[in-house]
Amino acid sequence: MTYPDPSLRSGFRLRAPAPLTPAKRLNLPRLPCAFIVLLHPMTHKKRPKHGSSPKKSNKSEPPKPTEQETPLKPAQKTGNDDSSTSGLRCYNIPDYRLEHPEFRIFMSGEGANLGYRIEGDLSAPPPPIRESKYLSRKQCIAIYRWMLLNRRMEAALENLYKQGKVVGGVYFGLGQEGCSCASAYALRPDDWLAPMIRNQGAMLVRGFSARDVMRQYMAKADSPTWGRDASSHFGDWQRRNVCAPISMLGELIGVMAGVCLGARLQGRNIAGLTYVGDGGQSTGVTYESVNFAAVQKLGLVLIVENNLWGYSTPADMQFCVKDLAERAIAYGVPGVIVDGTDACQVYDATHQACERARRGEGPTLIEAKMMRMKGHAIHDAAQYVPARLLDFWRARDPIARFENYLVNVKQWLTAEDNHKLIEDVERELEADREAAVVSPMPDPETDKTHQGVYCDLSCHEIKPKYGPVTLRPREPVAAKAKEAEAAVHLK
Ligand SMILES: Cc1ncc(C[n+]2csc(CCOP(=O)(O)OP(=O)(O)O)c2C)c(N)n1
Ligand SMILES: [Mg+2]
Predict the structure, then answer these.
(1) Which ligand number lies closest to the CA of residue 250?
(2) Which atom of ligand 1 is nearest the CA belonging to 247?
(3) Which ligand 1 atom sits closest to the C-alpha of 281?
(4) 100-130: b or e for each residue (b if 16 or more CB lie within 10 Å)?
(5) CA-to-CA dists, residue 395 to 21, 199, 415, angstroms
């Protein structure tokens, strides 16, 4: 869609009479997500009027070759921008998706009839998987296997919970496995991962076993935190470069920016991948952290997991921008939209963002659009979610579609190989489940090593990972700018 659309004018201050649209004046291609922001940039979601059907139907759109073949470019002024004279700013958010669903979730009714309704067309068939620019056959199959393991492990956890073996709740990434697994798969050993609670698939890819995750949920003595924490709050900063999830939403972003800064001081540019939800991205610390990473050009790769719900609040009631990737513009970093149910799209965007990070070019914000297919956690039956919405996203199941892609479209897996692979995953999972169940519970009387919850100086030595810390002078241009700025301030 090209902005501004006459129906979206509210909030726009048009500077000049425009017989031509700004895009035409600047001779810009009509990119689906290119949009023009005037001096006071305010973009609004295209919201169909209440009771009317939306203008755009939800149809699969053909790939846009110019965008997919162009490496990610910063979401910033285009080369032919004439902003010095007109005040116009032009931004481009690449959008890898093969469909652009248009629907709105809103609250309606009163009292006992209060509930969420959907406005829009949800009848389109699911889109195909987009061919990856980077992934080989072998890599695609590896990601598919991780996704299967992720899903089967969560199904096993649900059963363990029902058997009363889990201490606390269980969090699910159902419908988000492609996002978790394919993004973590783009990391190299020296990079860092900071998953959130739904990214258990990313933990698996990064080297934790399903046994680790299940032991952790059951607070077993041999779990990653020796029974001192249930659910998925664990990491491994020594071997796997994994920072444990932090419950306070948005806080992990600053931590990852810090990890990237630490590596920079040791002479390395690394990628630091983390995630934040559609709800969590509204926190102040998200802004502070991404802004810091942007200014310092740190290798933060932030995946904004827009799964349409934050607890029981739909995304439509949480923010006014149409796409959360638009936030990238305000940070001055590249933003990109992907279909979070398409592992190839997620991988490609994360891979490009990681490469950028390793070149020292700074952060990237990736919005992955998908759907949280269960409640917030196991206690939440999510009865507030309209059934039609669940049906729509069920048809976009990341695993079923990837399986079809590998078996039928690419013919990279025969039906028999696929069957064997699924059996293999189930066997591995069953062995891990059994081992986790028979693991002992912690015994504080005998275990003298793991008494405290916090580290103290005797726990471990913190030392540089990549080399000695050296303070390098900043780039000459930046240094000059700082000098000029300081001079102005002194006046
Ligand atoms: C700063 C902060 N505010 C509120 C909460 C409580 N809380 C935990 S999860 C959650 C919803 C998160 O929604 P979203 O960010 O969309 O992530 P999702 O659960 O959909 O993956 C909230 C409000 C919190 N943990 N931290
Ligand atoms: Mg959410």
Answers:
(1) 1
(2) 25
(3) 15
(4) bbbbbbeeeeeeeeeebebbbbbebebbebb
(5) 38, 22, 21
Cα of 279 to ligand 1 centre, how many Å?
6
- Residue 283 Cβ inside 6 Å of ligand 1? The answer reads yes
What's at 487, amino acid-wise?
A
> Distance between CA atoms of 37 and 388, rounded to whole angstroms?
34
Q: How many helices (H) and strands (E) does the chain have?
A: 15, 11
Bond into 386 cis (ω within 30): no
Question: Is the alpha carbon torsion for 43, 45, 48, 49 positive or negative?
Answer: negative
pLDDT tens, residue by residue, 93-145: 999 999 999 999 999 999 989 999 999 999 999 999 999 999 999 999 999 99
- Is there an atom of ligand 1 within 6 Å of 374 CB? no
Distance (Å, whole) CA 69 – CA 269:
25
| DSSP notation for 248-313 | STTHHHHHHHHHHHHHHHTT----EEEEEETTGGGSHHHHHHHHHHHHTT--EEEEEEE-SEETTE
Whose structure tokens read 């509204």? 282
CA 278 to ligand 1 centroid distance, Å: 9
Q: In this structure, which ligand is nearest to the CA of 195?
A: 1
Q: What is the DSSP letter of 409?
A: I
Residue 288 phi/psi, 5° resolution? Answer: -60, -45
State which ligand 1 atom lies nearest to the alpha carbon of 305.
Answer: 21
Task: Encode pLDDT of 410-467 as tens digits.
Answer: 999 999 999 999 999 999 999 999 999 999 999 988 887 777 777 777 777 888 999 9
CA of 251 to the centre of ligand 1 (A): 11
The amino acid occupying position 322 is: K
User: Does the C-beta of 206 come closer than 6 Å to ligand 1?
Assistant: no
H or E element in which residue 89 lies:
strand 89-92
Tell me the CB-side half-sphere exposure of residue 259, using CA atoms within 13 A: 28
281-286 long-range contacts, CB within 8 A, separation 24+: 281/250, 281/324, 281/327, 282/318, 282/319, 283/249, 283/250, 284/250, 285/248, 285/250, 285/251, 285/253, 285/254, 286/249, 286/250, 286/253
Q: What is the distance in A from the centroid of ligand 1 to the CA of 317?
A: 14
Distance from C-alpha of 355 to C-alpha of 48, rounded to nearest angstrom: 39
Cα of 170 from ligand 2 centre, angstroms: 16
